[in-house]
Amino acid sequence: MLFNLKINNIINSVSKHVNASLFVDDFAIYAEGKHLQHLERTIQLCINNVQKWVSESGFRFAVSKTTCVHFHRQRIYTEPALHLDGQPIPVKEKFSNHYVVFTDGSKLEEKVAAAAFSPEHPVRSKATRLRDGASVFSAELEGSRGMRMWTNSQKRP
After folding, report:
1. Which residues contact 67 (CB under 8 A, 6 or more apart)?
2. Which of 23, 58, 63 is nearest to 47 (CA)?
3. Nearest 5 degrees, angle CA 88-CA 95-CA 105?
4. Nearest C-alpha neighbor of 48 from the set 14, 79, 7, 2
5. CA end-to-end distance (rounded Å), the chain
6. Among 81, 96, 85, 78, which residue's Cα sits nearest to residue 43?
7. pLDDT tens across 56-114, in order?
8. Interior/surface letters 104-130, b for 16+ CB within 10 angstroms, e for the rest
């Protein structure tokens, strides 16, 4: 319990131009933009800030479990060069044991629906109608829940 209370403050060390996600002890930072050099510098500065917070708080990052994934549309590109604790962060083309999932909830008058789509597995895409008067937030949760149940049932490499 104390770990969860303490680690939640890691979000405060993230730069304002970088987004962050924390789930238990899994932490991710991400940014978007058109210019790789600017993004690379922004992310590296954020990594440095987060690393400082981690050191001062008594935590440690497992450099061996840290990766960079560069999502882009270019055929020819330069991989970002990021470092954690003086060691280069490896760049991977994709996560081998993760799925990309898009969810959406919508409401028209009192009718509410949820949808989930995975471009890697379009057969598993799902749309569901919720009870009248449900919130859009409930629809988002339902779409996420359906895809989470499916991904949990898959065998991973």
Report:
1. 89, 90, 91, 92, 95
2. 63
3. 125
4. 14
5. 32
6. 81
7. 888 888 888 888 887 777 777 788 889 998 899 988 876 555 566 667 778 888 888 88
8. ebebeeeebbbbbbbeeeeebbbeeeb
Q: Measured between alpha carbons, how far is 60 from 21 in angstroms, rounded to an integer?
A: 17
Please answer whether residues 147 and 118 qualify as being in contact, where contact means their C-beta atoms are separated by less than 8 angstroms.
Answer: yes
Residue (of 94, 79, 86, 95) closest to 36 by Cα position: 79
- With tokens 């590109």, the residue in question is 77
**Six token digits for residue 117:** 């789509």
- Residue 90 identity (one-letter amino acid): P
Locate 27 and state its tokens.
Answer: 């932490």
Buried b (16+ CB within 10 A) or exposed e, 84-95: beeeebeeeeee
The answer to whether residue 41 scores a pLDDT higher than 90 is: yes
Instruction: Give the contacts of 53 (CB within 8 A, at least 6 positions apart).
Output: 9, 10, 12, 13
State the Cα angle at 109 between 105 and 102, rounded to 5°.
10
